[in-house]
Amino acid sequence: MNRFIIAVVAGVMTAGVAQAGVTEDDLNNDQANTSQVVTNGMGRHLQRYSPLDTLNKDNVQNLFPVWAFSLGGEKQRGQETQPLIYDGVMYITGSYSRVYAIDLKTGEEIWQYDARLPEGILPCCDVVNRGGAIYGDNFYFGTLDARIVALDLKTGDVKWRKKIADYKAGYSYTAAPLIVDGLVITGNSGGEFGIVGEVQARNAETGELVWTRPVIEGHMGTLNGEESTMTGELNATWPGDMWKTGGGATWLGGSYDHDTDTLVFGTGNPAPWNSHLRNAGTPTEGNAGDNLYAASRIGIDPASGEIKWHFQTTPREGWDYDGVNEVVAYTDRDGNKRFATADRNGFFYVLNREDGKFVSATPFVKDITWASGIDDTGRPIFIEDNRPGNPADAADGKKGSVVFSSPGFLGGKNWMPMAFSQNTGNFYVPSNEWGMDIWNEPITYKKGAAYLGSGFTIKPNYEDHIGSLKAIDPDTGELKWEFKNEAPLWGGVMTTAGGLVFTGTPEGKFIAFDDETGEQLWSFQTGSGIVGQPVTWEMDGEQYVSIISGWGGAVPLWGGEVAKKVNYLNQGGTVWTFKLPKQLAAAN
Ligand code: CA
Prior knowledge:
single chain, Methanol Dehydrogenase, Chain A, six-stranded antiparallel β-sheet, five-stranded mixed β-sheet, 3 helices, globular, binds calcium ion
């Protein structure tokens, strides 16, 4: 009886409110509200931690599949999306810029949207999409031809569609857009084509551009259609005109820290990869050749697009150690507000949340060759002999000295998001132990062509595994436990108050681990490799877990000796949804 009255009152109230659908409050409270998942990261802090403990270490063996949804068609390849859960519907993005709305109870399709992609798109690293955003009555996502699209949440009809950048110049888009205070905020992809990284903010209702912030020094930002300020200082850390095609793609999107009202975006490699073309000097000579703000994390004012702070993980970067990996906001054991990020370069960084200042860095992979450590200011202590050589020093000028570098260019950790547990205070980092032979070559910029000036061969560091899920204490950098996997890990991680850590493997297994010991408590074979991101929510008093399965992403595209570890894996495209049935919640 009570429930009926509440429902009627809620219905009346909703009818009288101008803005229906997902609100700013919903986004802020996403972690605490266990009945929905409306942010990428399961909460704005990107902790990917659920306070749900219905499903726990004692009963996870009773977790069963309730439905599976095939993306269908002939288009498979990598499925990297994080499902969003809202008002009885699951929203997912798929490879080739597709979107699906699925009935949460039955797994039946409600609508599907296929972006019509032009010939000649230039995605560097598979045709993936990493998820959408919901705000008001709209679903937002980006496409491989570098557009941002707003769809009607109920019907999938296009409300607006805007161009982020020119796909013919190598721009593309794969990240989940970010919503902050009525703005849709996007980065861009294309760091291997000499594009310029940028962050753009649009009016979520109309799609009109509000501000732009290029992330390479010398470029001008805009605000309300006018020039605003220059990023950095022209030629302070870049020689000549190299900044004009300087890379720094903001390809993994960003996050929003409500406590400090700051957008945090990471930036990719400076272009080209051959660092000698961007810095002929040594890194001990001040910061003249650092190539700001590539390979950095940047704090941005969401109202104006002005840069508030920056922290560069790899100055004068020369290994494709993109600085894009997600920045997770958390509170450490002493009550300090921190950011943590596990960089491509192999170091796990803790930063101060207020100003992005360096706190600590520890290696999270075993065999880092390019730096002996990070100094007290956060700057790497380079091992100069392990920098790939300058082709200009070679007798024929065509190929610089070859060095072995670890991590390899795909990084100690790539895009796949780590998780933080409020239960243990630890981070769970999907990492890979691999290296590469790398050398530099001459290169000149040509629009729409790869702009690397490097060659490379990626190889495993160990016979028995590349993948390594690590539980890391962020206060000490200490490794608490490790799960080794033969193929490289490429999927996201999730933690729960029930003491569980979920992730998937390219071999297809979706696994629940004990967050304290690393013991495997449950697993399910999904039929294709997992490179997606798990979520959990509660519906009708039962806890659900979903993961997308569909092998692909960057790993199978780059060959080398790693190819042998993955070339037998089958493609796919299926969302699996599991639940702990009510009658089995107490059993064990
Ligand atoms: Ca890159």
